[in-house]
Amino acid sequence: xxxxxxxxxxxxxxxxxxxxxxxxxxxxxxxxxxxxxxxxxxxxxxxxxxxxxxxxxxxxxxxxxxxxxxxxxxxxxxxxxxxxxxxxxxxxxxxxxxxxxxxxxxxxxxxxxxxxxxxxxxxxxxxxxxxxxxxxxxxxxxxxxxxxxxxxxxxxxxxxxxxxxxxxxxxxxxxxxxxxxxxxxxxxxxxxxxxxxxxx
Length: 200
Prior knowledge:
It comes from uncultured bacterium (gcode 4). This is SUF system FeS cluster assembly SufBD core domain-containing protein. This protein has 200 residues and is of the alpha/beta class. It is built from three helices and 13 strands, in the order βββββββββββββααα. It has helices at 148-155, 161-178, 185-199; strands spanning 2-3, 7-10, 14-18, 22-30, 34-42, 48-57, 60-70, 76-85, 88-98, 106-115, 121-123, 126-130, 136-145. Strands 1, 2, 4, 6, 8, 10 and 13 form a seven-stranded parallel beta sheet that branches. Strands 3, 5, 7, 9, 11 and 12 form a six-stranded parallel beta sheet that branches. The longest helix has 18 residues, at 161-178. It is globular, with a radius of gyration of 18 Å.
């Protein structure tokens, strides 16, 4: 399977067709109001796609439409969405379609929404259209606040509540970045710079 460097995009629409025996990794940052369409098609078999979407919502309205279409055998697709909601509204519409004539495909979708302020609004439910039994699809959806015990632990180290939140969220971002095979310091630096501006 051919390897490619991580593809980094910010605040844009994406339409990608993944060829046979390709390994593709996408990192998408969304931190501005708008409607974004992310379409990924795997149609020739034996490809692997990793998609990570990081959303930072502050006084904005964001709608994310992400669609994965699989029409090949032994396709692998793993999608993670991490959403920091400070203010405003985020609507996430995720859709999967697997055609019935192909088997052996695996798909995962994990969405984690973290409320930073009480008035943030988040909505969205995965839609699955799987036309055969010999495919695996898993999804999870979490909507949480930062745990009080985690804040207490860091506060006991003489850190303010704001600094404690910053550290906890930064750890989550770093864990996502570390999960990529390609370690790109320039991308990491840009994401952390935007995060610091967002969290202030």
